Amino acid sequence: MSESLNTSSRPRVLSGMRPTGKLHLGNYMGALANWVKLQDSGQYECYFFIADWHALTSDYADPSNIEPNSREVMLDYLAAGLDPQKTVLFQQSRILQHAELPLLLGMITPLGWLERVPSYKEMQDNLTTKDLTTYGFLGYPVLMASDILLYQPKYVPVGQDQQAHVELTREVARRFNNFYKLNGREVLPEPDVLLTPSPKLPGTDGRKMSKSYGNTIELNDPEPVVRQKLKTMVTDPARIRRKDPGDPDKCPVGDLHKVFSTPETLARVYEGCRSAGIGCIECKGWAADALVQILNPIQERRARYTPGEVEDILKDGSDRARTRAEQTMTEVRAAMQLTSAGK
Ligand code: TRP
Ligand code: SF4
């Protein structure tokens, strides 16, 4: 039989992101580029989504940005190379099964499991401007477990920061399967984490690139903006004057070269920096060249989509995801003997 994109025999993969606004290079290298690789390998049935209800757990007081941000993120997904012909792209809030399953899983999830999730205390300590002592925020991992288990994926590609959430998902699934079975069979398979290797990607201030630090290079930054941001980027603090030698291993610009530049350019950077043969301005120009090369095709793809097309893709993908999610819910309800649910 010829290779078909619809063979459900391929292992399923599912992942998502909160719609925090336009995505940056850190999001791309830490997640999106890997998703595109998984998609293009043809080996997996891919589901990638926008976790807009997750954004609500912290932004409930002013939800006005969530919907516009969801559209920007979908555009960035498409721009990065996710293809609605190959992959199911959807938005969480369009699929009400993402609200039903957390209600049911919440019944069996011990409070202690949630309070012990590392991000729970961390986020509360870090986001001091927002009151996160809510039921919804505590329940974040149950919502996430439901996002995953609804699609019965084999793998969940995430960065290390999300690993604990996937572990909890496995524990919740195990507990569910212990309590409830359908004709003696387990309903919710435990998914495996597929850890995304994420290169060290510094922002313009040298700290990890992150929207909350305001140090990002966005996927949609035009070339002059990329070049300007590079100009302001911090360098090896030992290189004060042009004639001082520096060390690319102690320089955030050097880290960018390691990720994005060709081996030849990287060799020129090491040689020129350590011998003070090149200046930082020149070196930053080369880094900008490499970034622009990565960003150009992404920006060209982004520009091709109209708002109407994005809406169609979201609707279509969400319809497909809903059908899959409902299959799981039918089994979940039956296993829990909720025979009247939804009637
Ligand atoms: N919590 C994830 C993040 O902040 C987003 C997310 C929500 C997710 N649901 C998911 C990731 C399900 C993978 C699978 O990045
Ligand atoms: Fe950093 Fe390049 Fe300057 Fe060396 S030459 S300190 S690697 S910017």
UniProtKB/TrEMBL annotation:
<feature type="binding site">
    <location>
        <begin position="18"/>
        <end position="20"/>
    </location>
    <ligand>
        <name>ATP</name>
    </ligand>
</feature>
<comment type="function">
    <text>Catalyzes the attachment of tryptophan to tRNA(Trp).</text>
</comment>
<dbReference type="InterPro" id="IPR002305">
    <property type="entry name" value="aa-tRNA-synth_Ic"/>
</dbReference>
<feature type="binding site">
    <location>
        <begin position="208"/>
        <end position="212"/>
    </location>
    <ligand>
        <name>ATP</name>
    </ligand>
</feature>
<dbReference type="InterPro" id="IPR024109">
    <property type="entry name" value="Trp-tRNA-ligase_bac-type"/>
</dbReference>
<dbReference type="InterPro" id="IPR050203">
    <property type="entry name" value="Trp-tRNA_synthetase"/>
</dbReference>
<keyword id="KW-0067">ATP-binding</keyword>
<dbReference type="InterPro" id="IPR001412">
    <property type="entry name" value="aa-tRNA-synth_I_CS"/>
</dbReference>
<keyword id="KW-0963">Cytoplasm</keyword>
<feature type="short sequence motif" description="'HIGH' region">
    <location>
        <begin position="19"/>
        <end position="27"/>
    </location>
</feature>
<keyword id="KW-0436">Ligase</keyword>
<protein>
    <recommendedName>
        <fullName>Tryptophan--tRNA ligase</fullName>
        <ecNumber>6.1.1.2</ecNumber>
    </recommendedName>
</protein>
<dbReference type="GO" id="GO:0005829">
    <property type="term" value="C:cytosol"/>
</dbReference>
<dbReference type="InterPro" id="IPR014729">
    <property type="entry name" value="Rossmann-like_a/b/a_fold"/>
</dbReference>
<feature type="binding site">
    <location>
        <begin position="26"/>
        <end position="27"/>
    </location>
    <ligand>
        <name>ATP</name>
    </ligand>
</feature>
<dbReference type="InterPro" id="IPR002306">
    <property type="entry name" value="Trp-tRNA-ligase"/>
</dbReference>
<feature type="short sequence motif" description="'KMSKS' region">
    <location>
        <begin position="208"/>
        <end position="212"/>
    </location>
</feature>
<feature type="binding site">
    <location>
        <position position="147"/>
    </location>
    <ligand>
        <name>L-tryptophan</name>
    </ligand>
</feature>
<keyword id="KW-0648">Protein biosynthesis</keyword>
<dbReference type="GO" id="GO:0005524">
    <property type="term" value="F:ATP binding"/>
</dbReference>
<dbReference type="Pfam" id="PF00579">
    <property type="entry name" value="tRNA-synt_1b"/>
</dbReference>
<feature type="binding site">
    <location>
        <begin position="159"/>
        <end position="161"/>
    </location>
    <ligand>
        <name>ATP</name>
    </ligand>
</feature>
<keyword id="KW-0030">Aminoacyl-tRNA synthetase</keyword>
<dbReference type="GO" id="GO:0004830">
    <property type="term" value="F:tryptophan-tRNA ligase activity"/>
</dbReference>
<dbReference type="GO" id="GO:0006436">
    <property type="term" value="P:tryptophanyl-tRNA aminoacylation"/>
</dbReference>
<feature type="binding site">
    <location>
        <position position="201"/>
    </location>
    <ligand>
        <name>ATP</name>
    </ligand>
</feature>
<comment type="subunit">
    <text>Homodimer.</text>
</comment>
<comment type="similarity">
    <text>Belongs to the class-I aminoacyl-tRNA synthetase family.</text>
</comment>
<keyword id="KW-0547">Nucleotide-binding</keyword>
